[in-house]
Design goal:
Radius of gyration: 38 Å
Strand content: 15-25%
Mean pLDDT: 79
Distance between the termini: 32 Å
Structural class: alpha+beta
Length: about 650
């Protein structure tokens, strides 16, 4: 086993072991938090904060009856509500199926002092929250009071605290017990939230630290996005450009996640609201992820015929969903369900897409950074879902956001920057190589022109001089001057063909024209056959020019020296090579004898070397075969 494959095997094994260990730790930590006394929470003097997720009763469907007694209400709650055993989240399901959910629990102030506590939850998957409290006791009527309702777009000035979390203050006297009923609504994505109870002091401290952390994440994403976009445009680098766009979309997604896009003004004539803006940002992020992955794995894609149509179809579906939000609000009732389902489906498709092509990128080209980030991104999700599966809770691939976003962002940025640096170094090296190659090609061109000049003087000139000598001679030989003049014309055609330079035309067209010209005057019948479906035209320009120059020399030598009656010029290709084959049925030649003395042969080998083409001669007494091979990896390097 090679060292890279061994390292990969060891790394994946350690990754799997790590996931198992973290999952078991998560299971045990969740189990230790289970409330064996049923539901509710008892406040003590040392109370600071706690999660209420597995201390509450939940119901996906419940209705309040106006004027109903508290005793009757409590009886219906006991019949309709069930314990929530998930320690991570209160999950009602997808909002399209469960747009409204209910939570009930009891609070008991077991201390000797009044307690000011705060009931809070994030708002990114809970669009609306209404708090009800049971009022019981000798000095008050037994009733259920509606305390407050908070929406995503509720201004900070109208909230109890300067926080975009749904946060409700609750005050309990010493020894007081109170029943808490919470109604929540979600209109997009999953209907779920993390319910937390904190002392007022603890909540304010946590809010301040949360705001600092949230803005640190937002500004980090924004700065990375702007810098990457600037580098991508200046370099230019499509990889960095698409990465910059993706980071800007992540900035918007994180801003929405923490509620900072809620107070923005949205046009009332469209379906864009503080709730639906999250759907549109998610769809835009899916589009930029597709474009980024395409640029990241472009060197290894062999299935362009289906890859690009599928990619643009997915992008088109997301774009249509975004454009549907331009319709007036009353149309959104009809488009809401399919848009939400598409958004959820696109997230799953992108995860599968990234996972599959990260594996393909490693197998074909040794590109590991995409797969590494994918494993880091999915690690937390896998741990949470395995934990839920072991504990018998509902499983969803899309429930949990990244727990360490700054770590993931830093890791992704480092991986992309490292890849860009490698690409930049490779590009500079290739540019230098191309420049050197062009200089050598120009040198070869000048040498060919000088050789053509010598041929004009030594061969055409001498031939015409001989013809003139026969014409002016007193000996009458009418056939000899005509033959010499025809030889001179043929030689001039050879030389003129070698001067033709059609750089702007595809290789197959130039070769087809070249063969046609030779067929106009040569005694040999030349046949051109292209079995690559013109894939040879996708070769780098330097290789196309070199192949054309070598073919010019080969056809000229075939006419001059082979004595053949027919010759074939054929293009072939497979998954590894593009091959150009020239075959004739002539007399062949001694390759060893002419290899060091034939200037034309030396020039052909020099052209092939500069263009990274393998040139091989196979002369036999019944003909000569010449093979030009261009590996696919060499084609990429010359691009």
């Amino acid at each position: 086993m090679s060292m890279p494959k061994f390292s990969l095997t060891v790394g994946l094994s350690l990754y799997g072991v790590g996931l198992v260990v973290l999952t078991l730790l998560d299971v045990f930590s969740s189990s230790s938090l289970l409330n064996l006394d049923g539901f509710g929470y008892s406040l003590t003097d040392s109370f600071s904060h706690t999660s209420l997720n597995n201390r509450v009763l939940i119901a996906p469907a419940f209705r309040l009856v106006p004027g109903e007694s508290l005793t009757s209400l409590q009886g219906r709650i006991r019949q309709s509500f069930v314990p929530n055993r998930n320690g991570h989240v209160i999950a009602h399901g997808h909002s399209s199926a469960v747009p409204e959910g209910w939570v009930y629990f009891r609070l008991d102030n077991a201390s000797d002092t009044s307690k000011n506590v705060v009931l809070s939850m994030p708002q990114h998957r809970c669009s609306r929250a209404t708090l009800f409290l049971e009022r019981t006791g000798p000095s008050m009527a037994n009733r259920l009071d509606s305390i407050a309702t908070l929406l995503n777009d509720t201004p900070l000035a109208n909230r109890f605290f300067l926080s975009y979390r749904h946060a409700f203050p609750i005050t309990l006297s010493p020894g007081q017990q109170v029943g808490v009923l919470l109604r929540t609504n979600a209109y997009v994505g999953y209907h779920e939230f993390d319910l937390k109870l904190s002392s007022r002091h603890s909540f304010l401290n946590d809010t301040l630290s949360d705001i600092i952390r949230e803005w640190l994440i937002i500004f980090t994403c924004l700065i990375i996005g702007i810098i990457s976009l600037f580098i991508g445009v200046a370099a230019p680098s499509p990889l960095m450009s698409t990465f910059g766009f993706m980071m800007l979309m992540i900035t918007l997604q994180v801003s929405f996640f923490y509620g900072y896009l809620s107070p923005l003004p949205y046009p009332e004539s469209t379906s864009f609201t503080s709730i639906t803006i999250g759907t549109n940002i998610k769809l835009l992020l899916d589009i930029t992820v597709q474009l980024f992955i395409y640029q990241a794995i472009k060197p290894i894609i062999r299935e362009f015929r289906w890859y690009k149509p599928v990619m643009w179809t997915l992008i088109g579906i997301c774009s249509v969903c975004i454009l549907l939000h331009l319709l007036p609000p009353h149309f959104y009732a009809y488009t809401k369900l399919p848009i939400n389902r598409i958004m959820t489906g696109m997230s799953l498709v992108n995860l599968i897409w990234i996972g599959y092509f990260s594996f393909v990128a490693y197998r074909r080209a040794g590109i590991v950074y995409i797969g590494l980030f994918f494993l880091l991104l999915m690690g937390d999700v896998i741990v949470k879902q395995l934990s839920e599966l072991i504990q018998g809770n509902d499983v969803s691939l899309l429930k949990y956001p990244a727990q360490n976003p700054l770590l993931l962002i830093a890791m992704l940025t480092y991986l992309i920057a490292s890849q860009f640096r490698r690409e930049l170094v490779t590009k500079q090296r290739l540019q230098k190589q191309v420049s050197t190659t062009r200089q050598h090609m120009d040198t070869l061109r000048r040498e060919e022109i000088e050789r053509i000049g010598r041929d004009l003087h030594d061969q055409v000139g001498n031939t015409l001089a001989s013809a003139l000598g026969y014409i002016t001679s007193t000996q009458q030989n009418s056939d000899k001057p005509h033959q010499l003049i025809r030889d001179a014309i043929t030689e001039l055609r050879f030389l003129s063909h070698n001067l033709v330079k059609d750089d702007d035309r595809p290789l197959t067209e130039k070769v087809e024209t070249l063969v046609s010209r030779f067929n106009d005057f040569a005694p040999i019948r030349f046949i051109f056959q292209d079995y690559t479906e013109k894939k040879a035209n996708s070769l780098p320009q330097i290789q196309q020019q070199s192949i054309y120059g070598i073919l010019q020399e080969l056809l000229t030598n075939t006419v001059r020296h082979s004595g053949a009656s027919v010759a074939y010029v054929q293009f072939f290709c497979d998954d590894q090579f593009i091959e150009v084959v020239v075959e004739d049925d002539g007399a062949g030649f001694d390759l060893t004898a002419v290899q060091n003395t034939g200037i034309g042969l030396q020039n052909m080998f020099k052209r092939a070397e500069l263009a990274q083409i393998t040139l091989r001669f196979d002369p036999v007494p019944t003909g000569t075969s010449v093979f030009l091979s261009i590996p696919h990896n060499k084609r990429k390097k010359m691009s």
